[in-house]
Write a structure and sequence with these properties.
By secondary structure, the protein is an alpha/beta fold. The chain folds into two domains: 200 residues, 3-Layer(aba) Sandwich (Rossmann fold); 164 residues, 3-Layer(aba) Sandwich (Rossmann fold). 50% of the residues lie in helices and 15% in strands. It is built from 17 helices and 14 strands. β2, α2 and β3 form a beta-alpha-beta unit. α1 packs across α7, α7 packs across α13 and α7 crosses α14. It is globular and about 60 Å long. The protein starts with a strand and ends with a helix. The protein binds uridine-diphosphate-N-acetylglucosamine and uridine-5'-diphosphate (UDP). The site of uridine-5'-diphosphate has 15 residues, from α1, α13 and α14.
Length: 383
């Protein structure tokens, strides 16, 4: 079975590692996976580090599209992806999540009648101000096989009639098949936690981490592109730091770095506080930081779930999340970028006894069951 996998942004490389690992370990003789990197993320710390560390097969094509407005970036990707697909003629295309690389892959493949396998399907935040929501909506409606991590995702696909009459598995190109599988990022977190634990001395020494700290990631345009919003988040960090005597570690996304560097007021506020700003870290390092942190504040889709997987309380600095089960569990609070809400959420979560149900995102073997299902479907094989 010949599969083309299209990735481009940091979280997609990490997700691809889970599926490539399942192929390598269990189905190597049956699947020929060709990796195509759109080049959406291109800094070594946003791209190469994941290939080096997570054993993702080297990409056969790097389309080197880089940054740009949504239309420019997506259009350039589509042109380049079309010629790869025409050349490779795969049986199907795999794509992950909700970035512009995902959108370009889906729009291009569907018009070449190449079945799309969408992994992390059904995810909805119901806010089209987020480019990711638009990308997810379109991609799910174009896909032939949808692998859905959570029950909430299945409910969303029912509402949109992607699942008809409660049928979760009947298909052809026009009638998608939907599978509830659990989350491949839960697989990855379990798998790489053990490895990150072995590397703890190296990571500690490399970053000179404080003994206890709050881990923060911020990269959403809605939080960083408007300087006042980003400044507001840092005033909340200041208040927590001063009142509770806390240190912070922040691996800085390039989008956020650019805004911080442009603003003296923000840079000097950060310098006054107990904040360790570091470049984007590798995934194994990130898992170490997440497991060592006492608390996590994030606007990342991936990091909010990893906080849960690693049983850490978290503040999700967004107005809504597709991962509603995190909020329902009581271990995470949505605050948007409102400094007062962030402060109050921190107080609430640090005073509360938390309980994590680790079955919410599957059993840690989602990747293997996804690959098995794909093979069975395309080859009629029982493996
Ligand atoms: C993208 C995804 C977002 C995902 C995030 C993961 C879309 C619409 N957004 O957002 O869903 O959560 O990736 O990190 O696809 N830049 C660099 N070096 C790089 C990459 C980016 O300096 O290697 C800078 C550029 O100035 C660029 C900006 O970051 O303009 C934003 O990059 P882009 O890929 O457009 O969006 P992200 O914010 O990274
Ligand atoms: N991540 C990482 N290094 C970092 C920050 C994040 O490896 O410096 C990982 C993180 O653990 C998660 C993924 O990148 O698995 C999330 O990516 P990001 O926050 O960029 O995007 P999102 O998940 O919001 O789309």
């Amino acid at each position: 079975l010949k599969l083309v996998t299209i990735i481009g942004a940091r979280p997609q490389m990490i997700k691809a590692a889970a599926i490539s690992r399942a192929i390598r370990l269990h189905f190597n003789n049956e699947i020929d996976e060709i990796i195509v990197h759109t080049g959406q993320h291109y800094d070594a710390a946003m791209s190469q580090v994941f290939f080096d560390e997570l054993q993702i097969p080297k990409e056969k094509y790097n389309l080197e599209i880089g940054s740009g407005s949504h239309a420019v970036q997506t259009a350039k990707m589509m042109l380049a992806i079309e010629s790869v697909l025409l050349q490779e003629k795969p049986d199907a295309l795999i794509t992950y999540g909700d970035t512009n690389s995902t959108l370009a892959a889906c729009l291009t493949a569907v018009k070449l009648f190449i079945p799309i396998i969408h992994i992390e399907a059904g995810v909805r935040g119901y806010n089209k101000h987020f480019p990711e929501e638009v990308n997810r909506l379109i991609c799910d409606h174009l896909s032939s096989m949808l692998f859905v991590p959570t029950i909430a995702g299945i409910e969303s696909l029912k509402k949109e009639s992607i699942i008809h009459n409660n049928q979760v598995k009947v298909a052809n190109f026009n009638q998608p098949k939907v599978f509830l599988t659990g989350d491949i990022m839960y697989d990855n977190t379990l798998y790489f936690s053990a490895i990150s634990e072995q590397k703890k001395d190296i990571i500690q020494a490399k970053y000179k981490l404080p003994e206890t700290f709050i881990l923060v990631t911020i990269h959403r345009p809605s939080n960083v592109d408007d300087f006042n919003k980003l400044y507001g988040i840092f005033t909340a960090i200041e208040r927590i730091s001063v009142e509770f005597n806390k240190s912070f570690v922040i691996p800085v996304h390039p989008r956020t770095k650019a805004i911080i560097e442009k603003n003296n007021e923000l840079s000097s506020l950060i310098k006054q506080l107990n904040i360790l700003l570091i470049p984007p870290v590798s995934f194994i390092e990130m898992i170490y930081l997440e497991s060592t942190a006492s608390f996590i504040m994030t606007d990342s889709g991936g990091v909010q779930k990893e906080a849960y997987f690693l049983q850490k309380p978290s503040i999700i600095m967004l107005d809504e999340t597709p991962w509603t089960e995190l909020i329902e569990s009581g271990n995470a609070i949505l605050t948007g970028n409102d400094p007062e809400k962030i402060y109050l959420a921190y107080k609430e979560l640090t005073q509360k006894k938390l309980k994590f149900d680790l079955k919410l995102y599957g059993d840690g073997n989602a990747s293997t069951s996804i690959v098995q299902t794909i093979l069975k479907d395309f080859k009629g094989k029982t493996v």
